Amino acid sequence: MPQSSAAMFRRQLTRHGITSLKRATLSTLQINTGRLCNQACEHCHVDAGPKRTEIMSRDTMARIVNWCAQNKISDIDITGGAPEMNPGFRHFVEQLLQLNARVMVRCNLTILEEPGFEDLADWYVTHRIPLVCSLPCYSQENVDGQRGKGVFEKSITALKRLNARGYGSAEGPTLDLVYNPAGAFLPPPQDTLERQYKQELASRYGIVFNRLFALANLPINRFKRYLNNNDQLESYKNLLVDAFNPSTISGLMCRHLVSVDWQGYLYDCDFNQMLDMPLPHGHKRPALWDIDAAFLENRPVAIADHCFGCTAGTGSSCGGSLAE
Ligand code: SF4
Ligand code: SF4
Hints:
alpha/beta
């Protein structure tokens, strides 16, 4: 990627008849409750970990609930860090559940096995909260290599705990898993991988789940440092550029989702949040309560070279692949 990165992505869009990437109708509010996490994974784009101190305050949570009550949002997606480690988490989610929206949580699984969180699985099932859980492989070696020693075993125990409460069954709340590659390559086809996961997890551990989302790693923050340390940054960026797929554009998450950080500020997506690229809004950095949902429609998205990570191959979003 030798040239100006935003210019390259823009030129790719232009080549396919898209003069600027614009937002569509807002459907999802993705709320990052902070960077505190019980893990410190090698590929984390949030740079999250046990020593991070940036977490959402109860006052910010109250302002977000108030905004959601006044704006029509069909989906609320809670992420972190490990969102459950924020002391205001459960009250926040319970308030959001009072509104007419689907509230889901991105859970790293191991938090369910941490001291002090023994009742978390029961709380989740009581509220029937859909969970999207990280499990980058069904092999211990790959998971522990990427996420830390002992993470695989804890994740399997947590999945069994969730299954025992009905998660992933026909009648129970939804349990989706997230795959991301262990290195500088794109995810394999999502359908094929989902079949493999289902077969392996069922036969080895008796675990069931609903869907698998295959995500690409974007070359930012911790993963960028990993690539740099392994002399793979340029080749990975080139791989993403060469695999550009225009059919991913309409489904890009920045078109339908807005990302809110721990202080309430807005971004077109979680990656832009981590790169401190605020939603374009004149000279002011907008917070959620500065705008309404309708304001966002048709606004240009803040793009840069990392966007090639969302458009490569079958594409990548919080909900997995974007194209066949
Ligand atoms: S990838 Fe998820 S579990 Fe791992 S450090 Fe980042 S936020 Fe925590
Ligand atoms: S990183 Fe992906 S989701 Fe974010 S603005 Fe770029 S294309 Fe959109």
